[in-house]
Amino acid sequence: MEYRALGTTGLRVSVLGQGGAAFGQQYGAVSDQEVTDTVHAAIDAGVNLIDTAAYYGKGTSEEFLGRALAGGWREKVSICTKACRLDRDVFDFTPAGTRACVEASLKRLRTDHVEILLAHDIEFATDYEYVFNETYHTLQQLKQEGKTRFIGMSCYPLGLLKQAVERCDLDVVISYAHCHLFSTRLLSEFMPVADARGVGVMNASPLAMGLLTNQGPQPWFPGPPEVVEACRRAAELCRGRGADISFLGMQYAYAQKQVPCTLTGAARQSELDVNLKALTAPIDPVLLADVMRVLDPVRGCTWKCGNWKG
Question: What is the dihedral sign for C-alpha 21, 305, 16, 27?
């Protein structure tokens, strides 16, 4: 397993981070034993960072993870969890709401602190000044109280994430769906800002919200149809060569050395095994070039998310 520095936190994190969204039953049922087996296998393979959130399954992901890390496993990993988002359309960025969310998360995780605590999906806030002041100050207080070692924020719009690191003294951020086969905007538009401030960056959704899979995105995917169609054709090209676009996508994400950690949402050990294989399998340069050509018409495409107007 390769390890990279997470900003100036002092943490060296595995290039593959275990994502916990699927533990919350958001992509189909998964059992307690499956989660435990996956988490233990990931740690045994060298994964030392696990990301979850109060939002994932309304706490189910944290509950499953808390049980999986019992019996000495907790000490082997850094946990990142996220507060302020409680359901698909339920957010609470107030100091009281943030504190209540964190306390409930710690209870579910069966720990007295996490390594990283983020305000979740801040693009859905209705007042960004409030987030950069009141929510941020609450995160700072929780850090001072020892509830977390490091603090940060997460969101989709890179313009808003840039404002967050410029306005607040953040340790870590999560960006999603901006570093993958048809976009490296995270590298060109955000990493220079993060590096200048010593902010650690985790790359989530390296398969672009399911676009870069054989199954394609969920029906609620907010992006334009031409992106869905281009990715469908790229997946078809891979299948015709006996390859899987999601495997190629993971290989490509891991290869971006500027990004400390890429989060992958395997819920079962078989899925984890594929992601681990992508870490070491050499990328097919011909296949990659051909897929890139198919995706060129939508390269760098983004979509509206939350209330951000930038």
Answer: positive
- Write the CB contacts of 110 (distance below 8 Å, at least 6 apart in sequence): 66, 67, 69, 70, 74
Domain ranges of the chain: 3-211+253-270
The catalytic site residues sit at 56
**Cα(67)–Cα(94) distance, integer angstroms:** 29
Question: Closest Cα to residue 202, out of 83, 305, 49?
Answer: 49
pTM: 0.95
Q: Tell me: the pLDDT tens digits for 198-208?
A: 999 999 999 99
β-pairing verdict for 3-5 and 16-19 = unpaired
Q: Which CATH class is domain 3-211+253-270?
A: alpha beta
pLDDT in tens, 156-174: 999 999 999 999 999 999 9
Q: Torsion angle, CA of 92/97/103/105, rounded to 10 degrees? A: -10
